[in-house]
Amino acid sequence: MNRALACLLLAALSGPAAAQLPEPIFPVLRDTATGNPIATLAQQVWGADAEEPKDGPRNVVSGKDPEAPFADRTLFAGEFRARPGKGPAKLVLEYAGFETEPIKRGDRDNWVVFNIALRCPYVDGGRCVGETLPKTRFQNLFETRPDYANSMKRTAVKVAGRDRVLLTGLEVFEYDLVPEELMKVYFSFNAPANVETHEVRATLLYGEFTTAAPQAAAAGDGESKSPGFALKLLVFLVLSAGAFLGIRALARRMSE
């Protein structure tokens, strides 16, 4: 086998390179019934500048201002009125950040924390949420350490020519709300010292949704479209070409 074929074979066996950072970073939320983008009540996106300072007080809760339950780091996700027959309203929180140093199983500061507050300004006592109200503050949502059942997805990506580890996670909260009453949703968030926030998205919606693309491969077609199949095919072609050239060289020597 000549040198060019050897180089091709080595490249094929070396495995895929780190992927480019996807843009947009978060997937489209689609209606599970139709596959179309789902209608949202509100959607907001923030970057690292919206995070609570890593070196300052974190998880700050302030009852002084109903419009700022988490002091100056309060983020406003949106407001809406619950509609009868729509079912529970959902808050979808998504996080994306980069690992700045290796995260180990024994690390103690290992959660991306979201603090959530629901406010109904025109209801006495603020009781606009039914008995199914979940815990609303100090939500340890996203586990940064690897190899746990609830760990964030870890993806090797290349950013500005640099190999990085992207951490992504998604959590959903459902709320049983008093119909027709105005609901306001606030939150704040902070990440551990060894995680650099890239982007956060908050979405309010009704209904069932999926993050899968509508052109998902049919059952049985997965291998034909997978990187593993392409790699196997490339190796087969390289080896076949090498065998063919080897046979030609042998035949040439025998004819001389």
Strand neighbour order, sheet with most strands: 1-8-9-5-11-3
Q: Helix and strand string, N-terminal first?
A: HEEEEEEEEEEEEHH
Q: How many DSSP helices?
A: 3
Q: Which overall shape is indicated by the principal axes computed on the Cα atoms?
A: globular
Major beta sheet, specifics? 6 strands, mixed
- In terms of per-residue confidence, which ranges show pLDDT below 50 for 5 or more consecutive residues? 4-15, 131-138, 217-227
> Helix content range of the residues, please?
10-25%
Summary tags:
alpha+beta; 12 strands; 256 residues; four-stranded antiparallel beta sheet; single chain; six-stranded mixed beta sheet
Structure explained in plain terms:
- The protein is an alpha+beta fold and 256 residues long.
- It contains 3 helices and 12 strands, in the order H-E-E-E-E-E-E-E-E-E-E-E-E-H-H.
- The protein has helices spanning 3-13, 222-225, 227-255; strands at 19-20, 30-31, 40-46, 75-81, 89-99, 111-119, 139-143, 153-159, 162-175, 182-190, 195-206, 209-210.
- Strands 1-8-9-5-11-3 form a 6-stranded mixed sheet, with no helix packed on it. It has a 4-stranded antiparallel sheet with strand order 4-10-6-7, with no helix packed on it.
- Strand 8 and strand 9 form a beta hairpin.
- It is globular and about 95 Å long.
- The two termini are 21 Å apart.
